[in-house]
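Task card 7
Instruction: Convert sequence to structure tokens.
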Amino acid sequence: MVVPITRDGERIGVLKVQSSRAGAFSQRDVEVVGLFAGTVAAGLYKVGEAEARSRAKDADNRYKTVFNSAIDYAIILMGLDGRVDDWNEGATRILGWSPAEMVQRPADVFFTPEDRANGIAGKEMQGALDHGRGVDERWHLRKDGSRFWANGEMMALRDEAGAAVGFLKILRDRTEQREAAARLQASERFLRSVLDSSADCIKVLGLDGRIESMNEGGRRVMEIDDFDGIAGMDWTGFWDEADKAEARAALDAAVSGGVGRFTGPACTMKGTRKWWDVQLTPIRDGDGAVAKLLAVSRDVSASRKAEEALLASEIRYRDLYDSIDAGFCVIEVKLDATERPLDYRFLEVNPAFERQSGLKGVLGKWMRSLADGHEEHWFEIYDRIARGGAPERFEHVANALGDRWFEVYAYPFGGPGSHQVAVLFNDITARKRIEDALRASEASQRSILATVPVGILFAEAPSGRVVGGNAFMERVIGRPTIEPGGAESDSEWVARHADGRPVAPTEFPVARVIREGLERAELEVEFERPDGSRIWTQIVATPVRDAAGAATGVVAAISDIDARRRAEEQRDLLNAELSHRMKNLLAMVQAIASNTLRGATDIEVAKEVLADRLITLGRAHDLLLGGAAEHAGMEHVIRGAVGLQDDGSGRVRYRGPEVEIGGKAALALALMVHELATNAAKYGALSTEEGHVDIVWTLAGEEAGRTLAVSWCESGGVPVVPPSRKGFGTRLIERGLVGAVDGKVSLTYPPDGVRCVVQAPLRNFQDAL
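Output:
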């Protein structure tokens, strides 16, 4: 701003004022500087004494009025020696000194000691003399010794001849703005550090889908060494052809102001194939228009593999259903005419279902008929899972079931179009009520925690020291509650992750809630009890806050989940065993079929023989599955293999002790006995009404090395003639069981009937037990 300096309407100079602040000068700024210009003119030139006194008085009055009304600015007039000539009300308010205290004092009194030592005040005045003005921002001192950040400007005042006659110093307190800017910078740095530490791949995209930036964590998970190599690339180009349409649809949804989400596979920059859960949201400008897009991709490869393994596993094992403590069911979602979820019915439930849900006799029934008023969100969640194909883990309350809370893991089941969902759940009502009670009142906490079957402890913040707990702690992990003043809550406990790694003290939920400020932290660990036994537990920790919201402690619930974890391990073992057993069975079927058909001369006869052998194999296998799937009784195996050849007349006699044999030996024995029985019915003792067969098995020897012998003896039938050649049936008899138990076989053909004796160590027969 430039203001003319005039005398009697004649311009005798100008006063130039500049500001580092953005925007136009206010009207008050203009008035203040205008009065300064008049004051300077009156001071530099003499007029008639009477006129000068009158003008000076008027100018002085106007100057004083405006000069002291500028309370947001510290305005200081100084002589060439740097001493104060005048000092406005704003200077008093900002700096603390009154005009009387400052007039004729050096102006550098409000400069910091370090600036005075460096002669900053003199340098500012010299800069104003050299360049007309000087602008700076620096710390200054108040009368009370406190510091404030000010925007300052020093201007040189000159007479008509251009000679310097003094200085004008203007200061404005900018401390609040500086601190706000510092806070903003700190917030931005913090936000950047949070984004960089995230394991998610977080990207900013242009509206055309091209990549503009990516967080450090995203570069790591995407295996990117140099971001410049992908900057500007089309984001949809990272996806397989089958998933590009979904990626483009999600992009279009975000550009339109909505949210786009999908799950699909894509490779990292180094070719590692991963599954990603992706969400795109709009980033709006100041006017609310979509300016850019935020894309967050989470690596869900591990959970995806686990889900695929779960879907592929045989979940119908009854022993698994009977052993797990969690409730399990398979439901079918019913839709109305508008494809909205209307109800769901139960197709399958496990024994724990009733205990966990409180519902009885649910198979085939619809949920609304069992619990009228069941909340709509249950139907909507299961419909979403069935349609979307993605599993979900959540917690919800079911008021219609007695205000019970459930922790649920649900996933699609039954294949595309079935609209079925498998649900694994636990009643967590007790835990929820405990958490609510803990937040409500410490007194009620103590009374409730004394009765619930969950281990509870309290730790103070921020030390993390245990200050109390309930007696159930000792029943869960074998340790009594540590007394107040004891060691830090987690530091003395021995616990391990699923892979055997020790759990560090900082990983325990109590420590994480205190150190990271979390509202909830949980962890599943295997505790080692003092007696050496181990137990799987779930630890859930939440903060306890005072009325002001400050965290004063942490409460942790420790639940016994050992049965569930052991059941999961047993399930994996059973799946592996089923796969192994099916491979062996298919190999045996292939061998039987190949050898039966290899030497066949009549295809119809061969088909009948093959079918007979496979039926016998199937019966033996059914016998195993009907038991423990690992062993069967000797007599059951032999009777099942003889089958229809035993007409119940007593011509087939069985005798021997009760002996359990392994699955492999049972299948081989069944096939061998079937061949002997078939041959006896066609050519031997069972082909006549007078013939008999005695099947005897015996045990001999000491306990550690006992031998099992199985004999087949025919009598009373047609005379026996040794075969001229060995067919597959004979080879199966001679080699099948021997190969299974590593024993000896004797097959002879005396005239009165066929004899077959197999002998092997008992432990070989029971190898699979």
